[in-house]
Backbone:
């Protein structure tokens, strides 16, 4: 199962993505986590990415694409994966499509986790990550609206988009997600049609 998770910062993608990965036995690929790991390891890519992240701006597409392309080759992605925080621009979405078409492994579904902006701001302000100060939060929301929201239309036109209400308890939201993803699972094997005597 190959799934993309789209939603604004603070929508709860990370929390739900971890649950989804566990429930469906697929890899959880968070580009935000990858970039933070690179930053903390002080690699060249990490240092470069940090300049954008700490300003609430998107890291340039070529950097992200290189990281994702490599990560998708790993063994744990063969059973499927959930992309959390990628793609975030139309160019990334198109590059992903091209990559997956080339491998013959198209996406199965794109989930949008939708949460009203006041609620996002409230949640992010209480979180305390280094890019969670008000000015940077505002910039991340702007980046979402301008660069990532157009993807909703892109995937809607391809018949892949499902919107999930992101308000409620973690369990309630996970239940909504399962209602969308469960039907994508392989159908259970037919029981023997012999009627027991
Ligand atoms: P959030 O969704 O809360 O903003 P993430 O952990 O997904 O948090 O991302 C943190 C930061 O990492 C983003 O603000 C951005 O700078 C960078 N980033 C993550 N994924 C991408 C991506 N696909 N393209 C560009 N930048 C990204």
Residues:
């Amino acid at each position: 199962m190959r799934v993309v998770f789209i939603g604004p910062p603070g929508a709860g993608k990370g929390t739900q993505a971890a649950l989804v990965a566990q429930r469906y036995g697929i890899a959880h690929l968070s580009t935000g986590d990858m970039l933070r790991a690179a930053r903390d390891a002080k690699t060249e890519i990490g240092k470069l990415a940090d300049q954008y992240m700490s300003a609430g701006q998107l890291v340039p597409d070529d950097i992200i694409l290189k990281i994702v392309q490599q990560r998708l080759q790993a063994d744990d992605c063969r059973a499927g994966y959930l992309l959390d925080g990628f793609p975030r621009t139309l160019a990334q979405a198109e590059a992903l499509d091209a990559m997956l078409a080339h491998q013959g492994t198209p996406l199965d579904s794109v989930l949008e986790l939708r949460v009203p902006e006041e609620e996002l701001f409230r949640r992010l302000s209480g979180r305390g990550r280094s890019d969670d100060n008000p000015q940077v939060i505002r910039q991340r929301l702007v980046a979402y609206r301008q660069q990532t929201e157009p993807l909703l239309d892109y995937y809607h036109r391809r018949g892949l988009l499902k919107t999930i209400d992101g308000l409620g308890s973690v369990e309630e939201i996970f239940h909504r997600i399962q209602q969308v993803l469960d039907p994508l699972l392989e159908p259970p094997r037919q029981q023997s049609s012999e009627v027991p005597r």
User: Anything to note?
Assistant: The pocket of adenosine-5'-diphosphate is lined by residues 9, 31-32, 35, 52-53, 56-59, 64, 85-86, 88, 92, 140 (CB under 6 Å). The radius of gyration is 18 Å. The beta strands are 2-6, 27-30, 81-84, 109-114, 161-165. The CA atoms of residues 35 and 133 lie 19 Å apart.
